[in-house]
Specification:
The chain is mainly α. It is built from 18 helices and no strands. It has one domain: Growth Hormone, Chain: A (Up-down Bundle), CATH 1.20.1250.20.
């Protein structure tokens, strides 16, 4: 395999696999209302929606388990093994969600099965993101780690974007009744061919892990003993990742129709446009961090979200399409800059022999506790306070925590990867 072909395969395998995993995982959030009616029927639609978002959170609560499992695999048996298994583990539960009978057909078995399938998805995606980020950053040359890491995260967002685009298309082309009854299932079934392509790409990848002879016998124990300060920093950085992304690019498609009264199709359109912009912003931010450092970009983005989250929510609290689109665009720029630089900054914190375990545990613990619960927390804050802008304060709190973490973090962009 030539060097050019090898680089193409490494990049494409990481990008396609990540996109597929996150398409499958996030499409649930876009159809939460329909899934709630199908599997968690209730007399009050808000109760059904909260139940559906609760199961969305269950998938995230399984991510720490995925972090432990795939972190161990990546450090003990190699990054390639982790990448292959994580994709394979996502295919079956995603397909089964697409064909699972609803509550009206099999009763309580339907919500129980949905919970189990979301748990299985959570374990798989808990290993995929960190494994692919580490693999792509380790494979990058000097001065290119920020850009390589941004490709890993932008492909994740591209997968969510693909889910948003599919949801937009289905919403536009299908009657609302048909979409709610069965059309949402098509979105899950479309992930199967992407997964098979990703498996084919990853079969022949070169390994980047340390030699098997130097691999730790128990990388999880070593990580907990030696890398806990870095794991705490990863947790603090990931807090903003979880709250910002899942509030502004998953929950927002439910928030805008419920609070502003705009049609669901317009909400999906706004989300899709700005998510596409964010996919472009992230590689630019990663490349910029290779030139000027990680800290300046991270401080600017976290500080901007602390100061601007409430004003931007206020602008979005209107039925005017153009105003919502513009405010959401500002969120896309700030969140995209943060997400584009975060992967390389986190990978650079750890030694190679226990890097997968340390990063997977710190990242997935935070996403499991904070990211997956964000849509449910945002819906609860509005229901409890009767204040439509209440989610902005939750976002500001997460941005403040991540800002403080970056302030205490040393610059790693120009250092050799440990």
């Amino acid at each position: 395999m030539s060097e050019r072909v090898g680089r193409w395969r490494v990049t494409t395998a990481g990008v396609v696999g990540n996109a597929m995993e996150w398409y499958d995982f996030a499409v649930y959030g876009f159809f939460a209302a329909a899934i709630g009616r199908e599997f968690f029927p209730a007399s009050d639609p808000s109760v059904s929606l909260l139940a559906s978002f609760g199961v969305f959170a269950v998938g995230f609560l399984a991510r720490p388990l995925g972090g432990f499992v795939f972190g161990h695999i990546g450090d003990r048996f190699g990054r390639r093994a982790s990448l292959l298994i994580s994709v394979a583990a996502m295919v079956l539960p995603t397909f089964l969600i697409g064909v699972l009978p609803g509550y009206a057909t099999i009763g309580l078995l339907a919500p129980a099965a949905m919970v189990l399938l979301r748990l299985a998805q959570g374990v798989a995606v808990g290993g995929e993101y960190t494994s692919s980020v580490i693999y792509m950053v380790e494979h990058a040359g000097p001065g290119k780690r920020g850009f390589a890491g941004s490709l890993a995260v932008s492909s994740s967002v591209a997968g969510v974007l693909l889910g948003s685009a599919v949801a937009t298309l289905l919403s536009a082309e299908m009657p609302a009744q048909a979409l709610g009854d069965w059309g949402w299932r098509l979105a899950f079934l479309l992930g199967l061919p992407i997964a098979l392509f990703a498996l084919w790409l990853r079969r022949g990848l070169p390994e980047t892990a340390p030699a098997a002879a130097s691999a730790p016998a128990n990388p999880i124990a070593e990580a907990l003993q030696h890398e806990w300060p870095g794991m705490l920093r990863v947790f603090g950085l990931t807090a903003l990742n979880g709250v910002a992304f899942y509030m502004m690019f998953v929950y927002i498609t439910t928030y805008l129709p419920m609070v502003d009264g705009i049609p669901s199709g317009e909400a999906f359109e706004i989300n899709t446009i700005n998510m596409a912009i964010m996919v472009l912003v992230m590689p630019l931010a990663g490349a910029l961090s290779d030139r000027i450092g990680r800290r300046p970009v991270l401080l600017a983005s976290t500080g901007g979200l602390v100061l601007l989250s409430w004003p931007l929510f206020w602008v979005m609290h209107t039925p005017e399409f153009s105003a919502i689109l513009l405010a959401h665009f500002a969120f896309a720029l700030l969140i995209g800059a943060f997400l584009g630089v975060g992967p390389a900054a986190m990978v650079e914190m750890f030694e190679a022999r226990r890097r997968c375990s340390a990063l997977s545990i710190g990242y997935n613990l935070c996403l499991g506790l904070i990211g997956g619960t964000t849509p449910m927390v945002a819906a609860y804050l509005i229901s409890r306070t009767h204040y439509d802008l209440a989610p902005a304060f939750y976002l500001m709190a997460a941005a403040s925590l991540s800002f403080l973490v970056v302030l205490t973090q040393r610059e790693t962009a120009r250092q050799e990867l440990a």
